[in-house]
């Protein structure tokens, strides 16, 4: 089989790889890479929460490799997603633009999150320029490993949007679907479908076993080694999905965590990232490879304790614009360039990774589009740590600006967890948490008098401020006004209720993958 | 003045001290201490929460010295208080016995916490043997710096219970009381009252300024240097109270934290402990000094965001038997003996510090009393890390066993936050948190069918387990039965409603301090 499918095979493959690296490494000794265009690796976790890492306070302390990555790099306790849901967050990362600007949102109802389920025909607009497209200008080779989530029709797939390689799936690994009406999600190798989840790519729903993370790691190594051989700078977008429900881990990790299956998945990702960073050092490219670790949105608390992570001290989780929905674990690593053991309190977000990557690569940003991402290099390289200190963070659901953070103050213009209707079916975005008038099941408008929290004193958003209210508001209001005045929303691509965006998925799910290639191993 | 009362004086004093150390240090070079009876330092914080340290996930990451202490020592993420309130917790630490055994509890009403306010005449029973009394057998000199809280009548004070020196107060630093009916809390130097809070020992309620932590640090240094000179092993019990409301910090720290005044207090304590550890190294006694850092109970969430800390991902706070009430930050430090950068998942508690200290000192435990504390040295010194793996943790309010933890399972036999009556006055032990049927305002009995949580998957106690319920219960039940069968409660010392225990405090508060000495500087 093409992939190492058993535990033993994984070990053997790793040994072979190490041997191979040793040869490559020797061949490269004395050829330091070009620091002007460093390799860029973005490690994007799926539904992992801020509180899932030891360094961010997870009591189980089971992420020694990520904790070591932080000790060797820069930790960002104030790092944000661009949206509390997967698809828009990922679209924002790759475009450097808020979902309301790049089209990855819906206007079907007020303040609704939207993503790309199997049933949707929408996808990333052809007008949007993605990071790998920009990096091509400097000769970067780009690969995405894992979840895409920017549309599953052929014209939306990664290789149409600047990536040179892809291993992974267009959608979440929900399933198994064992009826003919709803097929399992396809897994691609570049433009070819090479199988489907639960079929060629097993995920055992009973035991939680799957070796997908190991495959993702191998795919990363293959790509890196190829680029070293070709002497090309590379961009690796490693979007592993083991921590998204249904969570999974490979056999050596199952049952190892104090936290159950979710923790097993975290341990395997931690171990994989540890091996990746070790490989970069072994290959002697660590001084020429910028690595950034983060997650796409907050822990999916509504998935329950067996399938979801921790948002630490923050309020609520995925789908909400409270801190638990959008505050992300984040670590930057670049030995020799980023000072080890540092903490940056800079407010930053996934869109900054677009702009920062361009700056690192030496590519000018596109001048005909508005970017929301900022260039973090003055902070990362400690050239001008205060350069971006007044930048705000915007929290959206759909096209509604729910909240804004400026400094330590966060103003909520709308508050909402989820609808009564949904809540009564047992779906709870804030289990065990309740802030009266804030975590409500109706959408509460506060636009005339936003609720303001001080996130330094009160990271859990439990105590609205009173004393310094007017002062805080007077600083936030002009920022919001300016943002709204200059914002031009684009056409929403995820309007689930539009016939044009939705089709009967049974047909499309079967047909699209086969349009590219019918046979797979 | 006896104390450095201004910022500049503090600096000058420190410089003088450093010079003094340098002399002492030279004098001691080549005289390694006796490892069989190492010095013991217990740093006990007041109302500091598990989530207040960077290493435990505080987003502000403002405890670099404590984080470094953890990196140089052993971190305990599963460390507990013996009670969710100050007095009983402190009594348990110093006796190695649960409050229900050592008498520091009340039976006035069901499941009530009790402590020693100014109004009480009760105190630690004369039958209880305290740690410094035991350590005397090996020639240890003992000092308490800071809050005592085991009774304020003359017969209960520290020097009657084995301590050789004391600087601090018998009660909390509430105040100022500016009427003749209720005097301010006295501050003692050994047996003499040397002033009162808000009078000779200023705490500015408006600005939060007080140099008490600096004084406490100096008192610690004075004692350590004296014992080095005398070549005596020492026990220092450093019970600083800056993080107890009203929180305070000295001028150089005021306004420095992202977290407001509470964070300022944490920063000053962190800085002080950093200086203390540095001094131990400088004095060349770090290999002969066991240092343990922890707190007396969970963060006092009911004090509001300006005056309370963080319990990280845990449920509720001080006064409750949820994790937020009793899980404590904990770090052991002993260079050359405790392996650096280790994490122990051992369930442990403050009472273990009694038994562990005896073991370190080479003193046999008293054989006529039941101890609840275990000897942690097999874990600390990595001799037998699994030796204590099945030990339970008991959570009491008054004489009611509210909950038990065994492994990852925690069974609640009674659940309660606080009364409706108290709640309606605005006192909330679980602000922003609500677990239906658990964080209730009536005492809920579950003795026939305890609510069980898996703290690995669900540290926040939000999702009662169902699947493995019977299995977990069958393991916990015999432990609880055994505990109850062998438990002999002692006479409660804190029955506030008994005339014998309470007196009109106005009289006693004035008279007691003067019984020892009338004049003070």
Automatic annotation (TrEMBL), chains A, B:
Enzyme Commission numbers on file: 3.1.6.4
Positions where 3-oxoalanine (Cys) occurs in the chain: 86
Keyword annotations of the record: Calcium, Disulfide bond, Glycoprotein, Hydrolase, Lysosome, Metal-binding, Signal
GO cellular component, one term: lysosome
InterPro entries in the record: Alkaline_phosphatase_core_sf (IPR017850), GALNS (IPR035626), Sulfatase (IPR050738), Sulfatase_CS (IPR024607), Sulfatase_N (IPR000917)
Positions of the Sulfatase N-terminal domain: 38-363
Comment on bound cofactor: Binds 1 Ca(2+) ion per subunit.
Known cofactor(s): Ca(2+)
Active site: 86 (nucleophile), 149
Pfam families, sorted: Sulfatase, Sulfatase_C
CDD domains listed in its UniProt record: GALNS
Glycosylation: residue positions: 211
Localization, UniProt: Lysosome
Residues annotated to bind Ca(2+): 46-47, 86, 296-297
GO molecular function, one term: metal ion binding
Top-level taxon in the UniProt lineage: Eukaryota
Catalytic activity field: Hydrolysis of the 6-sulfate groups of the N-acetyl-D-galactosamine 6-sulfate units of chondroitin sulfate and of the D-galactose 6-sulfate units of keratan sulfate
Entry similarity comment: Belongs to the sulfatase family.
Subunit record text: Homodimer.
Protein name (Swiss-Prot/TrEMBL): N-acetylgalactosamine-6-sulfatase
UniProt gene name: GALNS
